[in-house]
Amino acid sequence: MRTPGYFCIDRFTTTNNVGINELENIVNITLSPNPTSQNLNINYSTISESELIFDVYDISGKNVISNQPGQNHVGPHQYTLNTEALEAGIYFVNVSNGISSKTIKFIKL
User: CATH no. for residue 65?
Assistant: First the structure.
């Protein structure tokens, strides 16, 4: 049996199934520019107040950046993440509210 030595994940969502999916209050999470060389803009909208955590993981799963920008009010938001210190490669931004999360891939040039 021949099995490839790699795999690719673009987007996935995880939830803890103990009630209402809390991250449903976040809609339209996008990253720009992607690929990036310096700053990565995380654009998102909230339909209720929430406190989010932004974690960046490298391809091996190591947490390389962790930010908690604070309370978000209802409406559109943009959070700028400085990626200059990261080496070129594939990374994942995990947006979490402590109960559920969404993860999006980006490329650092």
Answer: 2.60.40.1930
